[in-house]
Each structure stands twice: as structure tokens, then as C-alpha cells.
From TrEMBL:
Pfam family, one: OppC_N
Main location, first listed in the record: membrane
Domain of life according to the entry: Bacteria
UniProt-recorded name of the protein: ABC transporter permease
TM annotation in the entry: 20-46, 103-126, 138-158, 170-188, 203-223, 230-253, 278-302
Recorded topology in the membrane: Multi-pass membrane protein
Alphabetical keyword list: Cell membrane, Membrane, Transmembrane, Transmembrane helix, Transport
Domain ABC transmembrane type-1 residues, every copy: 99-299
Species for this entry: Kiloniella laminariae
Database matches in Gene3D superfamilies: MetI-like
Subcellular location: Cell membrane
Family: Belongs to the binding-protein-dependent transport system permease family.
Length: 311
């Protein structure tokens, strides 16, 4: 008997040898999309270090610098690469800080929707019967309404209940709840279908025979086997959540102009678009398009990479 024990491969080694990594390095679109996504996320996270100006520091904002064009135009200022908005804030800096808020709302709302949807899907798929029918009818009813309409309804109810002076303080939280409650259905339906397949397998029946509680069977044994489709849905819905937040902010029911997201920046710039100050809305719009397109491409790649029929 040998004293030498076989060393287990590291996580990086397993990742490098996996089909997922092979698919990634052979997909130029996924590589470009991931690089753009990482750049935008890193710029948003480290906006305080990357941004040349702090657009929310009133001591550094000068109204005399308002509506300056980009630096390469004749009237531009080299200190403001992409120009300034109506308050004299640097557009490039506001894009970095605005991307942070858009990403926070997107990730938080997707996480909330995933928690609700996975929980409902697990319960409905495992229990079956009347409870399953009731939960799925609720999901069908919500699917008959557009997500943006549900988000507007929830946001309007929250604004009606909360005092006016608290609207700006809780605007981000209201957006997260509104978008999260709009997107849980896809998770619930997908998880339910997977659970209905898994619950008839031998490992689940073995757990039931030895007396394991249902919640342990669901969390420890069934849940890990249904997370693949959930990851794909979450990636795609991240882009949808960012778009929904931008739409709500553009309509004036999102985050306040004092801490704007990309949607708020586009709405502010839209008021000046026809007077010639095109850069205030165009550059935030381009940033939003690049971010959403990159996340969508990653979601499409991940869906194909995890589909065994395409291997």
C-alpha cells in the first residue's frame, strides 16, 4: 500500500479542463462581452478612484461649467472629456456613478426575484396538488401583465403609502422590490418543472425512506440539481432589470436626480437634446446599451454552453 495520496485538482484546474471554459475561449462574442461587462462593473465599483470628478460634491461643481460640449469640440474643456450636464457635472463621472446605481438595483432585484421564484418553484414542484395549482395560477395571472406595469403599480403604491419627504431616501429600495416582484415568475416555473422531474428519482425516494425532512431534501439534494437553468435566467434577467430600472427612472418614478442612475441621466439629457446639447443623453444611452448588450450576450452564451443538446 503506497503512502502517496493522489492530490485533488484545484478549482482553477477543474475550471480550465471543463466544457464551460472550452466553450468560453472558443466564443469571441462571449469574451468581448465579458471584457466590456468587467470594465463597466469595475468602473462603477471604483468610481471614486476612476472618475476625474465627484459629481455629487457641491463644492467642486460649478454652474459656470454647465452644458460644456465634449473635450474634442471647439468650446470643450479638456477637464471634461464627455462634456458637462445642465448642473456643470462631468458627464463621464456621472456615467460611472450612475452605472453603480443601475447595477446595484439590477443585482439586488434579480437576487430578490430569484429567492422568491426558487422558493415558490421548490414548494409547488415538490408538494403538487392544490398548492401547486394555486401557486401556478398566481404566476399565470402575473404573466398576463407586463413587468413594467407591475413595477409601476408597486412603485406607485409605495409612494402613496410613504411620506413625500421619504421618497428620495427609499427610492432605490422601492425599485428593487418593484422589479423583484415583477420577475419571480420565470424562476418559479423553471424550478417547478425541474423539481417535478427530480422528485421521482431514486436519491429523493431514498431520502424520504430514511425519514429526512422535506426541507432538507429540497435544499440539500434537489436545489443543487436545478440551479443550472436558474443561473441562465438570472444572467438574462439582469439585463432586463437594468432596462426596467432605466425605464422607470426615465419616466420620473425611479431614483432622484441628486443620485442619478443611467435612466435618470438619459431623462435629464432628453430635455436638452433638441437644443443641441446631445452629449448629455447620448453618452449615458450608449453606456446603457453596451452594458445591457454585453450581459445579454453572456446570457445567450451561458444558455447554449449549459445546454447538453448543443454539446
Amino acid at each position: 500500500m503506497s503512502d502517496m495520496t493522489e492530490q485533488q485538482p484545484s478549482f482553477l484546474t477543474r475550471l480550465r479542463d471543463s466544457d464551460l471554459w472550452w466553450s468560453f475561449i472558443h466564443s469571441p462574442g462571449a469574451i468581448i462581452a465579458s471584457v466590456l461587462t468587467v470594465m463597466i462593473v469595475a468602473g462603477a465599483l471604483f468610481a471614486g478612484l476612476v472618475a476625474p470628478h465627484d459629481p455629487f460634491d457641491l463644492a467642486t461643481v460649478d454652474l459656470f461649467d454647465a452644458l460644456l460640449p465634449p473635450a474634442w469640440e471647439a468650446e470643450g474643456n479638456s477637464s471634461y472629456l464627455l462634456g458637462t450636464d445642465d448642473q456643470g457635472r462631468d458627464v463621464f463621472s456621472t456615467i460611472l456613478y450612475g452605472s453603480r446605481i443601475s447595477l446595484i438595483v439590477g443585482f439586488a432585484s434579480v437576487a430578490l426575484a430569484a429567492v422568491i421564484g426558487i422558493t415558490v418553484g421548490l414548494i409547488a414542484g415538490y408538494s403538487g396538488g392544490i398548492l401547486d395549482s394555486f401557486l401556478m395560477r398566481v404566476a399565470d395571472i402575473q404573466l398576463s401583465f407586463p413587468a413594467i406595469l407591475i413595477a409601476l403599480l408597486i412603485d406607485g403604491v409605495a409612494r402613496g403609502i410613504l411620506p413625500r419627504e421619504a421618497h428620495d431616501e427609499v427610492a432605490v429600495y422601492v425599485l428593487v422590490v418593484a422589479i423583484g416582484l415583477s420577475f419571480w415568475v420565470q424562476y418559479a416555473r423553471t424550478v417547478r418543472s425541474s423539481v417535478m422531474v427530480e422528485r421521482n428519482k431514486e436519491y429523493v425516494q431514498a431520502g424520504q425512506v430514511i425519514g429526512l425532512p422535506n426541507w432538507i431534501i429540497l435544499i440539500r439534494h434537489i436545489l443543487p440539481n436545478v440551479l443550472g437553468p436558474v443561473l441562465v435566467i438570472a444572467t438574462i434577467q439582469l439585463a432586463l432589470a437594468i432596462i426596467t430600472e432605466a425605464t422607470l427612472s426615465f419616466l420620473g418614478v425611479g431614483v432622484p436626480p441628486t443620485s442619478p442612475s443611467l435612466g435618470t441621466l438619459i431623462r435629464i439629457g432628453n430635455d436638452y437634446l433638441f437644443s443641441g446639447e446631445w452629449w448629455i443623453t447620448i453618452f449615458p444611452g450608449v453606456a446603457l446599451v453596451v452594458l445591457v448588450l454585453s450581459v445579454n450576450i453572456l446570457g445567450d452564451w451561458l444558455r447554449d454552453a449549459l445546454n447538453p443538446k448543443l454539446r
